[in-house]
Amino acid sequence: MQTEQSLRTPLTKYGHAHYEDNRKHTTTPTRDKQGTREMLDLSAVTLLCVDTRSPELALWAMKRCMSHAHFANAVLMTELAKVQTLSNDGIEYVQCPGMSSTREYSEVMLRGIAPYVSGTHVLIVQWDGFILHPDLWDSSFLNYDYIGAVWPQLPKTSVGNGGFSLRSKKLLDALHHPDIIIEHPEDLCICVTNRQKLEEDGLRFAPPEVAERFSVERTSWRYSFGFHGFFNFANALSENELREFIAKVPTSCCGGVDSYDLIDDLLRKGNTEAATALFRKCRWRRKSSMRFLTAWFRENMRFSGRY
User: Fold this and answer.
1) Do 212 and 147 meet the contact criterion of CB atoms below 8 Å apart?
2) Are 205 and 146 in contact (CB under 8 A)?
3) pLDDT at 255
4) pTM for this structure?
């Protein structure tokens, strides 16, 4: 889950335009005799997404992951009536308990997913977070019970974001202990509220330097195994992919701060076509509208030499 808005840090503060190359940390990926890239073997990992609002987008993100890796299983917990086609696509469809809020999402993530996990770990994805660079997978990731992108706004407990995260079955079982405090959002519940208790019980959280190779969210954009955040789509997708995605994304998924951040990034990159298309799909809240219009005004004044 995204952290609470009070903990969200503007992307631009952390140098969104800055890129770091982490490929030096990995070995050359194996290839078959024809020279094509082999599928990543994640047979000890279940791919899992919980999404009752936009299952078609969740499937899109899951299939992007499945195009890169073989998993022990792939599970979508959703509102089955909203799925357009329940096809034989290698994904197990599970009716999710009713959810009407992000708080209820947290409850499912904390104590409702363990029965559907095969293998030692589960890779949690959301529609706005998936595998980008399978060659940056490191088998040592499986030595940890939790890995998620670094939170720059929480330096003492910086690991990490739950939207694209790797969790052990051991962690999922530990969350059922009666001493665990259940609260929202679920990633802060695990990584901040209950971290000391979990570490005392022998669970391992990845250090920031490992987490930065695994995923990127609100820190400087870098090459990593995966990522999270709609605001990062201008980096994660090609221009054609982004254009196609904006055309199909439901308006219910637009209009929040993440949409503002993506539009702002697109404007700074000069992609006014995509920025305008997304702006037209957004159902703006007052605060988000004012932020966007202020940024748009400043950008136009800067280019005209009057600001």
Assistant:
1) no
2) yes
3) 81
4) 0.84
